[in-house]
Amino acid sequence: MAASYLFYGLFEPRFLLVLIYITIINYSTIHLLSNKKNKQILTLGIILSLLPLVFFKYTYFLLNDVLGIESEVFGKIILPVGISFFTFQALSYTIDIYRQKENIIPSLLDFSLYTAFFPTILSGPIERARTLMPQIKSLQHCNFNLILNGTQLFIWGIFQKIVVADRISEYVGYVYTSPKNYGTTTILFAIFLYSVQIYCDFAGYSNMAIGIGRMLGFNIRKNFNFPYFSTSIRNFWKKWHISLTSWLTEYVYFSLGGNRVKEWRWMLNILIVFLVSGIWHGAAWTFIVWGGIHGIYQIIEHYILGKTELKHSLSKIVAGSTLCTIVSFAWVFFRANSIEQAWDVLSSLGNLNIPLFTMFTTQFFLMLFVLFIWFIIELTIYKHIIKITESNDNPFTWTNLIFMSLTTLIICSLGTSGTSFVYFQF
After folding, report:
1. Active-site residue among 281, 294, 302, 384?
2. Is 281 known to be catalytic?
3. Fewer C-beta within 10 Å: the chain N or C terminus?
């Protein structure tokens, strides 16, 4: 716990007070609920837990964008890194105690570590008490194979982030800064590349977190499962940011009635869940629109496909290609700084007479090479890494580590402008 607090405090010591506040509020609520199952106590605990999140993350948006009240003071509020993640992680334990899915009241030390566990505190995965708390309460044994397996995942995460995501971000940044200066193909390529960037950026962090956990003997849940190989929106969200999707499903969607309600109410439930997901990601209209688009996708897909299972290869290819296309276009709102910028990007798709590429040709072809390497590793070596990580007893293969280490070092030595993890802002 001391290491986790030190790790978090290195970003901004003041924000340790927020982490401690969330820990104490939820720990106190858990104790009160253990004595009496009271909905008012749970509601109060949830409200008090969400207050810092609302203040730091949404005050400026509510005042400036919603109410039209301009305030420079609230515009300077700094968002504590990881607040959305550790708040949801702490709340999951509290709600599980109320629903009697958990009946063990942890010590303050154990619960503090559960909330502040340093591999996951900044950007997840959002762990549940049922999986992480038993590991905290029992002594974890670390061995050579676990360290090597964890090292593989950690290095693969570095490769995804520094080599792939950061290099792509340069290209995407240029296009989004002035989209009207570029033609249809350039815009389409930038839209596609951002889909790869956001995946490699966040999956890279998740793999690094899981890898560190493995080095220490902890099993942290997998957060991505090849989402772009999905053939439906529903399947995509079962494979993308798995920890958040399952959290929203269990604590929001089911609380609203799930699909055990009338059809119009089910559609409303879907929209609410995805709007909550959008708002959770950021205090801006762009994220709300992004969440709403995915909610509409899900409803339309329900009426077109229903529960149809695609069996033919051709239909799977068509469905998969369609899925990647519509998800990529939705990412435009996620990436854009404003609705106006998103519209500029989409409207620039009609600029047919502007030159194809007007930027760093050498970097462009290098980026294509990097994408090719990433794709090959993702389809082959990464599956092998996950397999041996989950089984614990498979032998370590030096070839994988050497290949990824050398690739990372070679590409990084060429120089690239590093960027912070995208999900740090959430």
Report:
1. 281
2. yes
3. N
Alpha-helix residue ranges (DSSP H) falling in 36-158 = 39-60, 72-75, 83-98, 108-116, 129-137, 144-158
- Residue recorded with tokens 């992004």: 290
Domain count, the chain: 2
* pLDDT one-digit tens code per residue, 285-304: 999 999 999 999 999 988 88
This prediction's pTM:
0.87
Residues 19 and 148 in one domain: no
Confidence of residue 409 (pLDDT cuts 50, 70, 90): low
Same domain, 149 and 132: no
398, pLDDT greater than 60: no
- CA distances, 251 to each of 38, 98, 209, 333, 391 (Å): 17, 12, 24, 26, 30
Cβ(231)–Cβ(319) below 8 Å: yes
Residue 175 and residue 57 in one domain: no
Identify the domain containing residue 114 by its residue range.
2-137
Task: Looking at the structure, tell me whether residues 190 and 338 fall in a common domain.
Answer: yes
